[in-house]
Structures are given as structure tokens and as C-alpha cells.
Write a structure and sequence with these properties.
Layout: H1 3-8, H2 16-22, H3 27-34, H4 38-45, H5 53-63
Length: 74
């Protein structure tokens, strides 16, 4: 598999970007709530990096959702 093919098939592990959009929230807002860098939240939203399970639970609490809604499952 070429590098180009790998870049276009990013696995969407989390649904953070979708849940933020559903709640009309921005990554900047979440970064402020968590005391994290906005770039970190951006990487999570684009699925280029993943938050820890502990962080996902904290994010779910802030967004008032079940943590399972933040994970892309079938």
C-alpha cells in the first residue's frame, strides 16, 4: 500500500468532532474546559491522535453524553 493510500484511509476511531458539532461547540471551547492546547483537541477531532480512555470519559462528562457516543463503533 502506498503512502498516499494510507493517508486517505484515516480510521475514524472517535466521534469527537461530530459530537462537538451536534452541540454547537468548538474545539477551542473544549480545550478551555480541559485545560488542553487547542492543537491537541484538533488532532483528536481529525483522528490523527487519540485521547486516552480516561480523557474520553472526562470529555463525555463535560459534554454530558455517554462515553460510548464518542467512540466510533459498529
Amino acid at each position: 500500500m502506498s503512502t498516499d493510500a494510507m493517508e486517505t484511509t484515516t480510521v475514524r476511531i472517535n466521534r469527537l468532532k461530530i459530537v462537538l458539532a451536534e452541540q454547537n461547540r468548538k474545539g477551542k471551547w473544549l480545550a478551555e474546559q480541559l485545560g488542553k492546547n487547542e492543537a491537541t483537541i484538533s488532532r483528536w477531532c481529525s483522528n490523527t491522535a487519540q485521547p486516552s480512555l480516561e480523557m474520553l470519559v472526562k470529555i463525555a462528562s463535560i459534554l454530558n453524553v455517554d462515553p460510548r457516543t464518542l467512540i466510533n463503533g459498529k
